Amino acid sequence: MTPPRLNVYRHDRGARALVTLAGVIAPVTAPRVRAALEQCLRDGIILIDVDLTTVDRCDDSGLRVFLDVSEHAAEAQASLLLHHPSPQTERLLMDTGSDGLLYPMRPGGARPQRA
Q1: CA 53 → CA 42, 76, 84, 86, 88, distances in Å?
Q2: pLDDT tens, 20-29?
């Protein structure tokens, strides 16, 4: 079986970084996500936008990375925001109660509602 693939792209604009992930976030690839996001904090980034548009799947190992980095960011007076999660990832965030910590406001200020 072929291991899952994940590409990580980073684009900085001042103290803000856009990190685009493409592929699968699973136990094998989650350390790459963690390394990329933690590097943003070490580089002095105060707002990390994570674009999940092209993430095929994210499991609980990816969720753990996002929660840990969000906590580290808060300690550094920085923020981590997830954008455009797949329906599966959005359900994972909502089912675990993590949507309030990570999910950005939708247009008009509304948060997605839990089922």
Answers
A1: 25, 27, 5, 7, 12
A2: 999 999 999 9
